[in-house]
Amino acid sequence: MVRVLPVELRGAVVRRRGRAILGPVDLTLAGEGLTCVLGPNGAGKTTLLRVMHGIERLSGGTVGYGLPEREALRRQGFVFQAPIVLRRTVAENLAYPLRLAGAGRADAARACADWGGRIGLGAVLDQPAQRLSGGEKQMLALGRALISGPDLLFLDEPCASLDGRATAAIEGLLRAARESRTRIIMATHDLAQARRLADEVIFLRNGQVERHCAAEAFFAAPQSAAEEAFLKGDILQ
Amino acid sequence: MNDITEGLRAAFWLLVSFDAELWEISLRSLKVSLSAVVIACAIAVPLGTWLAVQRFAFRRTVIAVMNALMGLPPVVVGLMVYILLSRSGPFGVLGLLFTPTAMVIAQVVIITPLIASITHQAMRELWAEYHDLLISLNTSKWQRVRTLMWDGRRALLTAALAGFGRAIGEVGAIMVVGGNIDHATRVLTTAIALETGKGDFALALGLGFVLIGLAVCVSLVTHALSQTERRGRW
User: What is B2-224's CATH topology?
Assistant: First the structure.
């Protein structure tokens, strides 16, 4: 079954204190794969993800999913840059979205045992989640987002401040999720990671989408001085 | 110093001799205050949590009023409840004046804003921590309130114990609506006031020590039952 959940932004604008920090953005994301949102600090990457996920109030324009909003949001997951863990055990954190969706205790426990192993936290399922390390918390947040099998997953710099091992573990989970046809949209600063993972790229600058194209094309042929400078690692103003 | 020693001695003898009257008023104190805490928590905990997650017009005003009501003068509360429950009052027909029920009502009025305010403060901090996650998980208002109440249960326990402390130590309102009637509405605090008035400071102090012991015991038992200090738990 193809589970494409399109995201369509039309004239989406976010203003704070009178200043536009995003948009207007017109963007359609359909199909499968992993999209990396790239751009310098303050470009609006996080805001764009939050707008697409429906948790950022728009000052203008619309966001649509080709489905009633409530149904579409139910089929999405979001992993924040700073992982948010509930003041519960690892297992209870993993089970939380399932329990919200009405899953029984036994089913939730089975899924937790399965996902606990997949995210490398099988041995600490009954430990308080807040005692985990930063990398483990991020794995838990990712597992919690994936456990209910979302069609669309947003990640906001999930590997920021993680070491190579934790980054590799997260990338492994993302590849597995992509293979099981979860559409992934991820903001990242890490160009090497984007090269490893991305099927397509959205390049943002000053709140505007400067380019939306296949990853290969983006990395092979930058079309503006800003893109070229960004890919070289120069500081963009 | 002599009075304190005498008080301790009186408290000791009252306890070891299983003084029937002491047990009666201690149990009545516990019954009235615990009933008030249960009822107040049923109102204040959901209210304080809801105020943390819900945005509406005049929300800040409601919170400010709720915080201000923490300082309600007990005697004034007692007077208002007295007027409402007196024969000529709107609820006079219920015949509740000078009964433990009237004392519970007065205590509920006094401690509900206190518990709601502490709850709101704790839940506001937890909501700030959980906000993005719970919004992104598309939770309903009720699911948010339930999650915050469960994960913030230690803070809620503190709020309940603060309410209990205020209730069990309260004297002004329950004196007015209860009347300090022997074998009917006399509780530890009103008994202490009575004995002090009679000049029996030793007995009054003894009752005071029993009251403190009772409050500490309830707190310890509550913590033990809820396992709040169990290793590795919250």
Answer: MetI-like fold (1.10.3720)
